[in-house]
Amino acid sequence: MDKVLIAGDFCPQARVAKLFGAEKYQAVLGDVKEIVSGADYSIVNFECPVTYGGEEPIEKCGMNLQCAEEGAKAVKWVGFDCVTLANNHFYDYGEKGVDSTLKALSKYGIDSVGGGKNLREASEILYKEIAGEKLAIINCCEHEFSIATETTAGSNPLNPIQQFYKIKEARETADYVLVIVHGGNEYYQLPSPRMKETYRFFIDAGADVVVNHHQHCFSGYEVYNGKPIFYGLGNFCFDEDNNYGKIWNEGFVVELGLQTQGVTFNLIPYLQCADSPSVKLLNQHESELFKKKIRELNAIIADEAELQKCYYAFVEQSLSSVDFLFEPYTGRIAKGLYRRHLLPSITNKKKILSLLNYIRCESHLPKIMQSLSRKISS
Question: H or E stretch including 267?
């Protein structure tokens, strides 16, 4: 049996960055080193570019993440063989950040997939021979500010049509096909119905396993047509000054057993960067409580109606953070007053209908995307 281990988001920030700067890798990752290095092949999502000081952050909404070279060195120290680069932060420091990251990974002999100097490189399948069998890894992410183009660096975009062809290509020569996606709603512990439909489609196309991360919290899983789909691993090692509670700190690595009879799996839960800046395995009692939460999530994922209900409740709760995007209010105070209905809506119904049509229509959406992109660059 080939044992392949997959972990979620790795981004050495805050306390962890200081420890890595002093090369105190044991203090942060010592508890999981045996598990990571004991697998035949181990993969983690590298959530931030390596920078050396000369790189400039790109203009975007949200944080621009980065780490020092010690971040790559820590990945090697704990035993990861490969990093996924299709995520929403890989291009945070532009072309130079991508180049610095690729060079640092190469320096430490770490494989990568899902990112490159252009779209062709970013979309390449990674093939690995493990114990005489070939594993194909396909990595992609949802569209944010990191997406590669034919002429610019970045991450491989989620495009089910293109992933279909890549899965078919991999299936011709590989014994096992693994698809890893970076997507979902942050701090929401369930997949959207779209995610469930898409990831099942990848299995129908020929993938043996689909794994997702990005939400900064763990989710459940299902076995579809005999093949496992994991909807969220949670953060692997991601320290944060803000306190998000256990939803940020709890996660699991998935240990896959690849064999001709099918894929087996084992979940290994941990607590990361809570009271201490470290990744600590849960004890037996804590693990049982954790797996009980997983079973509760699995039950919702298995129930189409309940999954829809939970998702639309989440969307409704999120509307207050979206409504102001269609208004001219930009400052913190103005946004707060608008949310409290102390400032009026200035967008009329006709304009809202036009926006809705441009956003949801497949033929119109590229126009509004191009228009907004030009406004940013002008």
Answer: strand 262-272
- In this structure, are 152 and 247 located in the same domain? yes
Domain that holds residue 208: 2-303
Q: How many C-alpha atoms does 45 have within 13 Å on its Cβ side?
A: 34
Picking from 215, 280, 265, the residue whose alpha carbon sits closest to that of residue 244 is 215
Closest residue by Cα to residue 8 from 50, 33, 43 = 43
Model confidence, pTM: 0.96
- Residues 122-132: pLDDT tens digits? 999 999 999 89
Domain endpoint, select from 269, 303, 337? 303
- Domain check: are 348 and 223 in the same one? no
- Mean pLDDT of the chain, nearest integer: 95
Q: Over 90: is that where the pLDDT of 133 sits?
A: yes
Cα 351 from Cα 353, distance rounded (Å): 5
Token code pair at residue 322: 């979206």
Count of structural domains, the chain: 2
- For residue 83, the one-letter residue type is V
Look at residue 305 in the predicted model and tell me its pLDDT.
98
Residue 171 has pLDDT above 80, yes or no: yes
Q: Quote the CA–CA distance of 208 and 227 in Å, as a whole number.
A: 6
The reply to whether 25 falls in a domain is: yes
- The pair of structure tokens assigned to 340 is 């409290």
220 & 190 share domain:
yes
Same domain, 230 and 359: no
303, 334, 368 — which closes off a domain?
303
Under 8 Å between Cβ of 80 and 237: no
For residue 122 the two structure tokens come to 């970013």
Give the whole-angstrom CA distance, residue 40 versus residue 7.
14
pLDDT over 90 at 352, yes or no? no
- Exposure string for 233-260, b = 16+ CB within 10 A, e = fewer: bbbbbbbbeeeeeebbbbbbbbbbebee
Inter-CA distances, 169 with 138, 164, 166, 187, 278, Å? 11, 9, 5, 34, 40
